[in-house]
From TrEMBL:
A biological process term (GO) from this entry: recombinational repair
Record-level Gene Ontology MF annotations: 3'-5' DNA helicase activity; ATP binding; DNA binding; hydrolase activity
Species for this entry: Knoellia koreensis
Positions with a binding annotation for ATP: G253, G254, P255, G256, T257, G258, K259, T260
Name of this protein: AAA family ATPase
Keywords: ATP-binding, Helicase, Hydrolase, Nucleotide-binding
InterPro entries linked: DNA_helicase_UvrD/REP, P-loop_NTPase, UvrD-like_ATP-bd
Amino acid sequence: MCAGAPWCAVRLVRSRKGRAERPPVTAADSSGRRATSAEVAREIATEQAHVDLVYAELAKAQARAGLVEADGLARGRTDRTGDVRDEELTGLFERDALVFNAARRRSTLDTQYEGLVFGRLDLDHALGKDDAQPDREVRYIGRLGVRDDDYEPLVVDWRAPAASAFYRATPVEPMDVVRRRVLRCKGPDVVGVEDDLMVTDPPDDLVVVGDGALLAALTRSRGAQMRDIVATIQRHQDEAIRAPARGITEITGGPGTGKTVVALHRAAYLLYSDRRRFESGGILVVGPSAAYTAYIERVLPSLGEESVTLRSLGDVVDGVTATRLDSPELAATKGSLRIRRLLSRAAGGRVPDGPTEFRAFVAGKAVRVDTRTLDRIRSQVLRNHQRNLARGAVEAALGEAAWASVREGDKAEFMDRFDGHLEVEAFLDRWWPQVDPREVLLWLAAPELALRHGQGAISPEEAEAFSASMREALAEGTWSVADVALIDDLAARLGPVQDAPAEERGFYEIEELEDVSQFGVAEVGGGRAARRAGGGVERQSADPRERLLQGRIGTPGEYAHVLVDEAQDLSPMQWRMLGRRGRYSSWTVVGDAAQASWGDAAEAARARDEAFGTQPRRDFHMDTNYRNAREIFDYAARVVREQVPDADIPHAVRETGVDPVEVTARAADVRTAVASAVEGLLDEVEGSIAVVTPSRYAAELAAVGEETGRVVVVDPMSTKGLEYDATVIVDPDEIVRESPGGIRVLYVALTRAAHRMTLVHLDQNGDQAGDPPRD
Ligand SMILES: Nc1ncnc2c1ncn2[C@@H]1O[C@H](COP(=O)(O)OP(=O)(O)OP(=O)(O)O)[C@@H](O)[C@H]1O
């Protein structure tokens, strides 16, 4: 528990620059007494009456909304950050009434989130003005704006300028706020209120209740999914959320400082502030893993926003989904810019098993174009064209070479016959087929090809590992996450696969096309098969190769805003992949260098800078850890500081009085030791528990706690961005040893628990199970 509410408030209210600010005054320290239970009940009843009114209005708004839904979402645009004009409010409210339809669909979420109306401001516009009469106003804040029949606001959207005082007011700068109140609701029912005072001498009629909403939110148990923080956004977080859309907004800070959740609220804010631009242009949110996207996927819907595209790094390219991870060494090879040379050579190389010379009879003359000439044509054409778009250029160049091999009779007549000649077309289909980028990667399953194309770019050992990984893909029918950026790079080199125009195909051509898979163009057939199958939904093939090539690689969509979380882990190739989607975007980029698992930070930084271009940048630094109990975070900070002295260490605000527990066991007894740690934690916390284990124990521990439905067994890298009520960290030394990220990866694992952490050290040689706790 926080060691005393007033103390807690002092530490929680910090300015962005860490300047001490006078904290809000809570019930206990304003009047020296807590509100009586009768007073609390009265306050709750007052708020309930208002919330009832809002829900009644919403029922009416919904009925109206159905009539004008089609054009409503386009309304409600405002870029302004000052006071909002009435007509702007009207636009916003109309939009909100429509959007409430979506909110209704999510009514089941109400039990998990603070309700629709979550805040109230008691303002006095005469505050600080000498001798002025009080000029009081009550303003309610909610997830959506709602007004009554007289166009009077019943609730202001949390993103509207009129709501900003809810997040920004402090006792030093009260912004006319006397009392800020957070309403705790379950669905439409108000179940509690928590107040902060911005003045030391509030009016007598103002009751002050509770110990502060933030602390209550932080102490709650963690579920399987992230919650929004709309009721308790702190001032320094609000500044990052409402920062202008333009340019690059970087949000940095140590573990648990709210970077992710702030970035997601920023996405919702951007949609609100310029809906036309961001809804039509699109916002892309990219996170490290599928587990991460599943963890955060409800935050934006709970804020009333459904239109954001959420992707994990293995899912950025349309047509490919990857969750498999390569070994860290192989991922490093695939992620480095060095790999581009290999890709470039493969994309520009011969089609394996394609013809190596051209022979035909054209206009009664024997034509022969040899291998060297064909190679020269290929490289010349590829200097100016993408391969899949170069069929015309290559046909013209081949015609010239064919004429050069003949030089007899009339050139114009020869060229005329050459153009569209069946033998020429048949040759081109095999020598210059449409090439799917995935097919090019699979060519590299041949070790000699990977070695040849990789020469001077990667080492022979790297080339062999690369080639082996393609054979693994072919055996399993799955891509790795690192492969996705390579597919995207190849797609940019090759250009989109072109469909042969159906009406021009004759009998022979159809035969040729049925057979093209052997020439590396399975995508053409696959794409068609997929469309025939009914548009969009793919049947999973039993054949691994077909699974790898299923679907169609789309041209990268361009977004108006790209939001990247855990940015410190992106490889240079992944930055390039995102750069293709954000050429004209503004960006929000979230990261913490001390949690990086990517080795070459300088190379990644260069690729990132290239993706951003020359846009202006602004930086927001978060320095308060809201996730970990102080005891847990102190342990983690001690560990990381030993090897990363300049790690960005935030300040944890919540105490539990319970230190992390350390036990040592024989490696042979790992299962018993971990099961016993889990059993203890199941009693201590209400929510989720993660067993974080290095890969060597993963199989043995896989089923620990399975029957409870509250325990997950995960590898350290997969915990990125996630959090649990409690964690069991298995063999921390091995976690450091097995990952090139070393101590930084252990630091990630050590900062996932909100309330409890147990470390199970393993002794490979010892014969004593259950040694006494260390320390
Ligand atoms: N103002 C706030 N009110 C309530 N909870 C908050 C607030 N800010 C952050 N939190 C909570 O703190 C926890 C950590 O937040 P988040 O995951 O966004 O941090 P992070 O900086 O991205 O962490 P990491 O880098 O370790 O992944 C979450 O449970 C989040 O809801």
